[in-house]
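Sequence in, structure out.
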Amino acid sequence: MAENVLVRVRAVVGRVGHLEGNFADDADIFRDLGVKSVAALDLLLSLEEEFSVAISDESFGDARSVSALARLIESLT
């Protein structure tokens, strides 16, 4: 996985989820990091804008960690 993609996904997740400090790349974004489900749409749209990709709702729902989102985005670029 490209380090640049992972770093950028972490930044988007941190910004949208209002997360401070360090968090594990494999932590569940919603369950472990406490990102509210209402922020999911904002996260999806922010990732699509950041990487200029279209992410299906199903694929986004299956990718529940920073590392899973980074792998998904790499597969789309």
